Amino acid sequence: MAFSVLVIALIAAIVLPVILHLRTRGNNKPRPANLPPGSMGLPVIGQSLALLRAMRTNTADRWIQGRVARYGPVSKLSLFGTPTVLLTGPAANKFVFFSDDALAMKQPRSVAMILGERSISELTGDDHRRIRGALAEFLKPDMLRKYVGKIDGEVRRHLDESWDGRRAVTVMPLMKRLTFGIISSLLFGLAPGHVRDALAGDFARIAEGMWAIPVDLPFTAFRRSLRSSARARRLLEKITRETKAKLERGEASRSSDLIACLLSLADERGAPLLSEEEIVDNAMVTLVAGNDTSSVLLTFMVRQLANDPDTLAAMVQEHEEVAGSKVDGEALTWEDLGKMKLTWRVALETLRLVPPLFGNFRRATKDVEFDGFIIPKGWQVFWVSSVTHMDASIFHEPAKFDPFRFKDGSPATAPPCSFVAFGGGPRICAGMEFARVETLVTMHYLVRRFKWKLCCSQSENTFVRDPLPSPRNGLPIEIERRASPSR
What we know:
three-stranded antiparallel β-sheet, metal-binding, monooxygenase activity
């Protein structure tokens, strides 16, 4: 229904842009002669609807491969109202990740309008390095070490309340609830309750509109996302003011949560390192990134382990050995996580097969050349993770689940910039280590407490992207408490 309404809204919005396009195209400066091959499609719409439709029917990989077969690994198109160049392959990934000056991190206009203009995903140059450095202060191992116990408590409370005593659960919504609880606790110090639940609802609607065509008309996902963003922003502004007051009174410290950490940072002159607008915008981005991607990973790990009893048994043994060294009821520690090597390999292989981000965007800050083609200044660059993840010349039998492809956190034989679930280069995901901690703690308690099997048949065990991957029906499973006691 929402998709149909979006189409109607787009048709209604096309007339003016087309007229403007026809009136002004003669005034546009000429494009370089050696643009990549491909079609830009209709004004405004371009290939956006085709890509979104392919993602929602889980045929996006095929759609991308069709473009590659037709135009080659570099092609032009139009996505979300912006001229775009699609780049594929390890060399293209390396070019995207390491061309920091020529290709700036830039999301579609819809993302910027929803999450804010002063976030790490929008800023470039010195501003980007300043924001990234500030977030890295909160996400560095020395800080995360302090939060393992807090994450441990959130996971155990969640399993007690939402899993124990039930014969069946639906995994995806529960994982979303868990990861939102963890991230909102660490970012803002939000305890369980009405405020956290309301914020979770707003962020679910925010996610629906982030990859939408930015047409702000009634009844569209984009309009609902904008309204939810405004409500969430007001709450985060309130939390920021309250945290600032607590810091001044000595009732909070730099390590209390992300807001406290960012407020505590100062430049060499003693002035605040970030403005309050920047704190709110980057809290929005961090909440989206830290919630949705982690819930996808955990859900698909559950899905994969249901079909792989041998790997699950090996994981149970790994976690029983960790638990055997601890006093009953004692929380996990940073050192315990280092012993969970198989579990992290399972996570990485799951990310290879089902990367939460289908792809991402950069924007050319100047005319730049790649593979003999010019990418004009201001154009988007779109890279896609699955092109290398599912390349048989890079990963042998790419459709096969094999955690032992990974050794010490990276593929054992794949060339650089082939496994890109966390991106790469100077802009590699700043929250990668946080995702590791969250995943390992959750799986420790989940595999020790429960056995499970899928409720749906193998033919029904499929997923869609909207825009993140989601199992059909949310992945319902039957669960059974394991006989051995768990802490």
